[in-house]
Amino acid sequence: MRALILSDIHANMQALAAVLAAAPEHDIVWNLGDVVGYGASPNETIVCLKELNSVYVRGNHDRACCGLTSLDDFNPVARQAAEWTHGQLSRSRRKWLCDLPQGPVEVGEGLVCVHGSAADEDIYVQTLGEAIDALQAAPSAWVEFYGHTHVQGGFVRSDDGWYVFKPEYTSKHNEEFFDLPMRRGVRYLLNPGSVGQPRDGDWRAGFALYDDVVSVVRFYRVPYDLDRAQKKILAAGLPERLATRLANGL
Ligand SMILES: [Fe+2]
């Protein structure tokens, strides 16, 4: 079984199109949430995703953009984008977002998908302490796939203790991948990276592929039509910051 793992697409259709074009053959998509919000293509993104054979967990932007939760915790830029997205979506697409399930969702034996963490769907897992809490909240999980931070990589607990995992690439311009061989007896908390708004200093769209035959998670970065994504954001009247930040992945 090969699962394509996507997270934090954020209505960036240009990035999603590049990811799907680069993605190797797969049996299913595991989507870790935040399919909309920030980007200028919420309708195209949802139409495209509905064609895929996917398991979802919802993200905080999915909840906010469909009106399921208030925007009180959002900063002004995120709030403006969520309000714009809400206005762009038809009632049926808002309902589709509202119906996305809350994580954690089990996708296989010992495999769990969450948006923030199994402890709290809105938590940002950025430190070792937060990673330990996240794995403790899913005691039967061998691998917990998470999103929300928009940072590709994660945390690994082996017999030697914990370490931070970050894929290593040789450029910031080409399509590349980095393999993480998976071992039983080791526990993993892995983020495939953000498709549509990376925040780890690399502008390229991030995603991952889990292959249970060879027991590897392959992390990818792929270039996409950044210029078009930025122009769409500006043409929509969304905050300029949402366009400029895409250029350096911050
Ligand atoms: Fe997000």
Write up what this structure looks like:
The structure is a single chain. The strands form two sheets. The protein has a six-stranded mixed beta sheet with strand order 3-2-1-11-12-9, with helices on one face. The chain has a six-stranded mixed beta sheet with strand order 4-5-6-10-7-8, with helices on one face. The protein contains eight helices and twelve strands. The protein is an alpha/beta fold. It has one domain: Purple Acid Phosphatase, chain A, domain 2 (4-Layer Sandwich). The longest helix has 13 residues. The protein is globular. Helices cover 28% and strands 23% of the residues. Fe (ii) ion binds next to loops.
Note the topology.
Blueprint (H helix, E strand, L loop, with lengths): L1 E5 L6 H10 L5 E4 L10 H9 L3 E3 L3 H6 L10 H13 L2 H8 L6 E4 L2 E3 L14 H9 L6 E3 L7 E6 L2 E5 L10 E6 L5 E5 L13 E7 L4 E7 L3 H10 L4 H5 L6
This protein binds fe (ii) ion.
The site of fe (ii) ion (FE2) has 7 residues, from loops.
Distance between the termini: 33 Å
Structural class: alpha/beta
Total tally of structural domains? 1
Shape field: globular
Keywords:
250 residues; alpha/beta; Purple Acid Phosphatase, chain A, domain 2; six-stranded mixed sheet; 12 strands; 23% strand; binds fe (ii) ion
